[in-house]
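Morning. Coffee machine broken again, so started the prediction first thing and wrote up yesterday's gels while waiting. Chain of 380 residues, entered below exactly as on the submission form.
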Amino acid sequence: MRIGIVCYPTFGGSGVLATELGKALADKGHSVHFITYQQPVRLNVFNTNIYYHEVRVPTYPLFDYPPYEIALASTMVDVIMNQDLDLLHVHYAIPHASAAYMAKQIVKQKTGRSIPVITTLHGTDITLVGKDKTYEPVVTFSINESDAITAVSENLREETFKNFAIVKPIEVITNFVDVSRFNKKPIDAFRQVIAPNGEKILVHASNFRKVKRVNDVIKVFSEVRKHMPAKLLMVGDGPERFATEELARELGVMEDIRFLGKQEQIEEILVVSDLFLLPSEYESFGLAALEAMAARNIVISTNAGGLPEINIQGVTGFMANVGDVAAMSEFAVSILGNEDGLEKMKEAAYNHALSFDISNIVPHYEAIYKRFCRMELCGG
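Came back before lunch.
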């Protein structure tokens, strides 16, 4: 099949999943065409079945904000027609689903062919941005006009039906992880640099937005430091970073924290870590937590959104209510101080991640594609 994938090219979960999905599809022999404004950060391999089409947005003095959605739709039309795409798979509803609808109508008018559109909902496109009255009518319309709709968790599916008048079924296809990428032997020299005296290593990775409650990470770490030597790795960047650094200084733990910024090869960091902290106010799924499990990290998270669907209390890690720093700290101190229990839980986290391996999930997307592919591609 010739598949167009539309996504954000950044470090966010939707872009990561879309890119990894495209790479896996290409490995299985499909032609995959990425359509976005810059090359996705995880698109770092050469594959003869992968193509990248940049959306160029002209700038004119007339526009304070260049019309990206129009440029995206025009690029979609160009790629559909010139590359003879069989379908479009758009990730994150805003503005990709609406742009895909526009492109579909243009292609139909020009050629008479109706290009199928699959829309995958990822989280804040439904729970935060999409609910804004400015966007809601368009989001609702474009989702309903999609030929198939998927969501990355049961929780997100429920939230979508609760907040939007969706009249079509939504199929849950969970996020996935390439376990082979994260199942690596730790680089001892790297761990020695971070924790020269054998300290436990905690890690957090996010885009440092308020919904991630990054300050809670610092507070939990501060409590852990009162009981044992430990180091904290902060991966990512965003609007809350400055306040987080200030809090770390106020609590006197800054010298034991490393702010690493955005990292493409996060697996090298996770494999030397012991515990992953994710105190988010909401996660539609929690892809970062799943990647941590694949690298044999236990996860301490909130029980918000879709996190209970992947983090099993007392098995792969622990969960607490949003903002309950005391409970998360107690869980962390307890497990990090129990070496045998820690190792058993790390192995359990890894084994649980195996059920979300990319090899188990990609066939579900292929099955959806085959429902809409043209007869000659389906053997008809």
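The mean pLDDT is 91. Going to sketch it on the whiteboard this afternoon.
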